[in-house]
Write a structure and sequence with these properties.
about 180 residues, mainly beta, six-stranded antiparallel beta sheet, five-stranded mixed beta sheet, Adhesion_dom_fimbrial_sf
Length: about 180
């Protein structure tokens, strides 16, 4: 059984304002989706629903060589059983993340073109093992009578020796599958 869910926006957006006539940018994001048998929410692990995962602001100097990663940011996909979402006892789920902007390096999710360059994003499972784009994660145990938070970690990672400045946003869709 597969549940297709929504697009997960990971990244950052910033705007700088000064006195005088300066301009900035506001980015508005949202998703409209049909849901499914088991709608999945993106949450702070053990906490509330979040509209996006923010990875932070970094200077280009931070990425001094290939393979430099930013601190990991945790997020979770919450599966909540109810009358329309029946989770059999002892069920497991795996998650496949698919990058909407392709992949870069050997195992990174590409960020949107036109922004920062030489930079990708990694997604790791709860054991902090990288999840290659388009590949199923390890199996997660599901509760049949209460919400389950499937924990993941995301971070920026340089895949080139030089990283260029700009907006760093990655959009990733995901599918939660029962084996």
């Amino acid at each position: 059984m597969k549940w297709t869910v929504l697009t997960l926006a990971l990244g950052l957006a910033s705007s700088t304002a000064f006195a005088a006539d300066e301009s900035g940018q506001i980015n508005f994001y949202g998703t409209v989706y049909a849901g499914g048998t088991c709608p999945i929410e993106v949450v702070n692990p053990g906490g509330s629903v979040i509209p996006r995962v923010t990875l932070g602001n970094f200077t280009t100097k931070y990425f001094s060589k290939v393979g430099v990663s930013t601190p990991e940011v945790s997020f979770a996909l919450r599966v909540t059983p109810d009358t329309t979402c029946i989770i059999p006892p002892n069920s497991k789920a795996s998650i496949t993340f698919t990058p909407l902007h392709g992949s870069v390096g050997t195992d990174l999710y590409a960020i949107r073109q036109g922004g920062a360059s030489g930079l990708g994003m990694s997604i790791k499972d709860e054991l902090r093992a990288k999840i290659t784009p388009g590949t199923a994660s390890k199996d997660y145990d599901l509760y049949d009578n209460r919400p389950t938070d499937l924990r993941f970690y995301a971070a920026y990672e340089s895949y080139q020796a030089s990283v260029g400045d700009g907006l760093a946003e990655a959009e990733v869709s995901f599918v939660v599958s029962l084996p």
